[in-house]
Amino acid sequence: MFLGHLAQQGVLVRKLLVWINTMMRGISEIKKLLPSLCSLANLGCGFGVAIAVVNGRFEAAPWLIILAMIFDAYDGRLARLLNSTSRLGGELDSFCDVTTFGMAPALLVGGLLSAGGEPLLGWAIGFLYITAAVYRLARFNVMQEEEDATHDYFAGLPSTGAGGMIAALVILDQHLAANYGSRVVMDLLPAVAVALALLMVTRWRFGNSVDFVTDRMSSPFCLFFILIGLALFILIPKIMPTVLFGGYILLALLGVLLERLHLKKATHKL
Asked: Which of the two residues, 256 and 109, has the higher pLDDT score?
């Protein structure tokens, strides 16, 4: 009887171990899926922008682009952290970015211009924008394969930064129109969209802001500025996106200008 009881306990222990092993394998598979789920959430936001524009919900569309940037910022980091990087994951991320930071901003600009009585201009600028974004992403993928490059800098304005700038300006325009009756931002939007498209296809260096901030999160100085930024975002959420994205682009352009001036001085000395 005692031996039978021990045998029964042994069977239970083996079943428990099998169950734990199955659960651990399941958790491991879920962990591998997390980066791809982030990419798909990014895609869902981009598709949401398209639905919003089609239905004339221009107030919701730009915020979906901002939300998508959060998912896009950490899908690659999650993959590296969980040791689940793959060629498939990289391609999935790229295709999702084409939708959310190429097609979605182009639709937003085109839809707004069409709603304002300029459908042909909206099509032309939207097409130019998405062409530049697709080219920018294709070039990035080729450079990834050809070079073991660090990501401290990008060649050309990232499509995420360009899409974020479009979204930020639309949010700012809605704020100014509702509170002050001004549409000055909307008047400037076509020219800004063209400028952003051109910046995407240049090879000028733009910093990797996500890695820069994430790698310095342990610094009290950096953490202080992040908290200040979050507080300002909560206080003036419709103005801060333009400040952040505009500041990022202007600082990068200033860096390009200073680099060229430095090279010019060095050439004259020779």
From this structure: 109
